[in-house]
Design a protein that fits this description.
single chain; 412 residues; alpha+beta; Jelly Rolls; Malonyl-Coenzyme A Acyl Carrier Protein, domain 2; 12 helices; 15 strands; globular; disordered N terminus; binds succinic acid; binds cobalt (II) ion
């Protein structure tokens, strides 16, 4: 089925108030309960829950209910419908046409829309406020809509999460229980024995931070919407498997060079009377081949950069409808500046940069502007003008613009 592009237009009435940039490490911020990011990270991050009243004073939902429902109707948006009708948990995956959702008058159902930051500027701006944590760790902003009594049941997550109330009220109960056994046979993770220890009613602007594995249950009191800012923490197994895959690909590329066609050889093999036995010689020789595999910090960086900047499987970039040639693009960008598309991931280290799963070397020319673009996700018009002497910069940005990775204009 073809992907339908979705063009969200920012609406001033529901733009998150306050700066859309993240607080600096030593900046006291209401976002973290009048703490600095440094204090928060040292005392709470990955350690203990924190309730923050009015993290976003006067917050309105980043998008209204109908716009959230419209997102859940798109093919490239991941959504789930969870119902708890007649005391029975059920889950279905989207997309959902508006008439496939239960009536908003019906109690106890919830719609979860994953990756709202990828599809909507307001959701993206809200998530950007959490960029005091590295992009490499940030996953997405999910928005849930629930009718009275709705929720996803008591459960735990394997990731850190900020649960920000954006509309209506939700009662959260949490517990640090050890027993994390789940009810068998359900289509979603629901704890068998939930033992809540603390309870709060969250109103718009209030936020609850939870480290991984804290049991929690949020139940809507009336219609409500919650934004979850989630993080990614691949399992050690996943990291190992992906790294080995990366090394295998690198070895494949190298094999096209000097060692092209090299194969297992055994000119010293003697005849055998027991053909079923695995030859000792084979084990030794293969052991010697495998012992040649080596890697250093550069390989780890290349693996992490490409793996973590790889867009999710359902991400589709929308190239501009009318593509400007490079000269026109530069002319426009000098007036408007440029910004990274919501879906683009740009990471860098001392030596390389990684954009949407591709790695390249960070030359001294690129060092002048690329880390700045990655950190602020835009280059202001004035800044763009000062950089245009460098034709490698304009050529690269024009290429990214044609791919839909760069847009004209800057973040508000
Ligand atoms: C929700 O928003 O309903 C669920 C979020 C969570 O518990 O992780
Ligand atoms: Co959860």
């Amino acid at each position: 089925m073809p992907k339908r592009p979705h063009h969200a237009s920012p609406s001033p009435r529901s733009t998150p108030p306050g700066p859309t940039r993240a607080p600096l490490p030593n900046e006291i911020t209401p976002l973290l309960g009048n703490r600095t990011p440094l204090q928060f990270m040292r005392r709470y991050w990955q350690k203990k829950p924190l309730l923050i009243r009015q993290a976003f004073p006067g917050l309105a939902a980043p998008l209204p209910r109908d716009e959230l429902f419209a997102l859940a109707d798109l093919d490239d948006v991941e959504s789930r419908l969870i119902t708890h009708f007649r005391d029975k948990w059920d889950m279905e995956h989207g997309p959902f046409a508006p008439d496939e959702l239960p009536s908003v008058k019906k109690r106890e159902w919830t719609l979860l829309v994953q990756g709202a930051n990828l599809h909507d500027d307001r959701a993206h701006a809200l998530m950007n406020q959490f960029r005091f944590i590295p992009d490499a760790r940030l996953d997405d902003l999910m928005i849930s809509y629930a009718t009275d009594g709705g929720g996803v049941g008591p459960h735990f997550d394997s990731y850190d999460v900020f649960l920000l109330q954006v509309h209506g009220k939700r009662r959260w109960r949490i517990g640090k229980q050890r027993d994390l056994s789940l009810k068998p046979g359900l289509p979603l993770k629901v704890l068998q024995h939930f033992e809540p220890e603390e309870e709060w009613l969250l109103e718009p602007g209030d936020m609850l931070y939870l480290p991984p594995h804290v049991a929690h249950d949020g139940i809507a009191e009336g219609e409500c919407m919650t934004a979850s800012i989630g993080f990614r923490a691949p399992s050690e197994h996943e990291l190992t498997a992906q790294f080995l895959y990366h090394l295998a690909e690198r070895a494949g590329e190298a094999a096209e060079g000097a060692r092209a066609g090299a194969r297992y050889r055994d000119p010293a093999q003697e005849p055998v009377a027991n053909p079923g036995a695995l030859p000792q010689l084979l084990k030794e020789r293969v052991g010697a081949i495998l012992a040649n595999i080596d890697w250093d910090e550069k390989d780890i960086a290349a693996f992490l950069g490409t793996y973590l900047s790889e867009p999710k499987a359902n991400v589709v970039f929308d190239p501009p409808e009318r593509i400007l040639n490079e000269a026109r693009f530069v002319e426009r960008a000098k007036k408007t500046g440029v910004r990274l598309d919501r879906k683009a991931i740009l990471l860098y280290d001392q030596k390389s940069y990684f954009v949407n799963g591709e790695a390249a070397s960070l030359s001294s020319k690129l060092k002048k502007w690329l880390p700045e673009l990655a950190d602020s996700r835009h280059l202001e018009a004035k800044r763009f003008v000062t950089l245009t002497d460098d034709s490698t910069m304009t050529a690269l940005l024009h290429e990214w613009y044609r791919a839909g990775w760069i847009q004209l204009g800057v973040w508000a």
